[in-house]
Model the fold of this input.
Amino acid sequence: MLEPISLTPNHILIVDDEPGIRSLVKRYFEKQGMIVHCAASGEEMHTVLTSQAIDIVFLDVHLPGKDGFVLLDEIKTEYQAGVIMLTVENDLDARLHGLNGGADDYMPKPFAMSELHARSNAVLRRLGRLKQTPKLETSCYRFAGYAMDCKLREVRNAQQELMDLSPAEIDLLLVFLKHPQTVLNRDYLMQQTRGRDATPFDRTIDVRVGQLRKKLPIEDEQSLFKTVRGGGYMLTQAVEKVRSSSLSS
Done:
């Protein structure tokens, strides 16, 4: 029986109308092993909250339409998520407004990502919702003329050229590398790469396997991945686990 590769991570929702802030926070917390969702308005926020099991919301005060204080009240009335308010205002009245309105914490902008991470963990711990994140994978793998550095999350070919793989494609490839020449069904692949985002009849795995086939071709017109009727997919090539320092040798 295949053992689970990762534990279910926390789900975070960033509600901020500044794309730069959303992107920065999203990249940082994804590197911490969390699943991150984004919204630029109250309407988008509710769309995410009604479709995902969000553990904590990073909520900007100044938003188009309803401001953060109004949305804070709606979150606390309708959902179970923790809330950390984010704002350029650092005066006492603003902080008290948010905290008295039910916010679990308050962070002035600009903020250090490490502090936001620590504060979010503290909130999740108080709420009993802090989940253990998977340990960072630091192994490296050689397969079919390619090398994957899991710490850097990079795949290079025999000429040391960096392959253009998305984070989601890297995640899926890593599952196959951990179970080479083994049939993995779609349900298992979905659970290991998407967790609670997985839905019945989702064809995301099929699309991503197809993308990996195109981006990682191998010799003799073979395919790196074999489709198994009624089963799923299999990485056809042998895999060697190596030290990071061995990749360039």
Summary: The longest strand covers residues 82-87.
